[in-house]
Every structure is written in structure tokens, then in C-alpha cells.
Specification:
8 strands; alpha+beta; 2 domains; about 25% helix
């Protein structure tokens, strides 16, 4: 009788532990899923080479390094109004990574204020936002240092 009682207590205790763990999993799983698929943000560091920037139509720079997977090496930054890059208004830009697909980010860059700002895009740049300080490294090389997020803005 003692063994049956102990076994019954063990079984009852095990059922209570399993029920608690199951309840915790149900409560935690949705928030973990929301976090995994929810807003992402952080610091952004990249370098670009602007040998392709002539000040004329088609002027561009190429990303040479980036710590953000969406901004791949050889992504092209096309300046839509290159003559305005040195003004406070700056030039609108399109950031286009290499390879197929409709994945572009839209923004504006001004070297007069040393800043690029991105506010959305298509494909992997949907809901992309970034605020980047632009600084000259040497020759045709420039640095981007700032913050980014992938989240809808209200």
C-alpha cells in the first residue's frame, strides 16, 4: 500500500509538472513567435566605393562591406539627382542588391549634412528604415554608420 501511495503521488506530481510546463509553453510560444517575426532593429555599419559616381545620370556607389545581411556586398546605390548630393536637400537614392528579385530600398542622401535616410522599399526591404551618418574614409571609399529597423511606422 505504501508503494501504491508513493507511486500515486509521483504520478500526480508528474502530471502537475507536465500540465504546468504545457501551460507555460502555450503562454510563451506566441510571444516567442511574435518576437522572431516581429520588428528587428540595430546598428548598421557598411562601407561603399564611389568610383562609379560621376555627378551625372547613372552615378552610383557599390557596397564593399556590410553587417546587415539585406545590404549585400556589391549592392548598388543609385543617385537619382546626383547634382543635388552636395546640397542640404540631397539626392534621392535607390539601394539595389545584386541578384534577381524585386528588392530595393528607397532613401535620400546629402553629403552637405553627412546623412542618408531610408524609409521603405520592396521585397526584403519592406518596412526598412535607416538613419545613417556618412563619412569619407579615403579616395573613393565612404563609411555608413547608423541605425536601422524593419518595422511598420505609424
Amino acid at each position: 500500500m505504501y508503494l501504491t501511495h508513493t507511486r500515486g503521488v509521483r504520478t500526480g506530481h508528474m502530471k502537475a509538472v507536465l500540465a504546468t510546463l504545457f501551460t507555460a509553453a502555450i503562454l510563451v510560444a506566441p510571444s516567442a513567435i511574435a518576437t522572431a517575426s516581429g520588428p528587428r532593429s540595430g546598428d548598421l555599419h557598411a562601407t561603399k566605393n564611389c568610383l562609379g559616381f560621376t555627378g551625372n545620370a547613372g552615378s552610383h556607389c557599390l557596397i564593399t562591406s556590410s553587417d546587415l545581411p539585406q545590404i549585400e556586398v556589391d549592392s548598388r546605390i543609385e543617385y537619382l539627382q546626383p547634382a543635388l548630393l552636395l546640397t542640404p536637400a540631397g539626392s534621392n537614392v535607390v539601394l539595389d542588391p545584386p541578384g534577381p528579385g524585386n528588392n530595393v530600398a528607397f532613401g535620400n542622401c546629402s553629403l552637405a549634412v553627412g546623412r542618408c535616410t531610408f524609409w521603405g522599399g520592396t521585397g526584403k526591404f519592406t518596412h526598412f528604415h535607416a538613419s545613417i551618418v556618412v563619412s569619407h574614409l579615403s579616395g573613393f571609399d565612404w563609411a555608413w554608420d547608423g541605425t536601422y529597423s524593419f518595422s511598420p511606422k505609424s
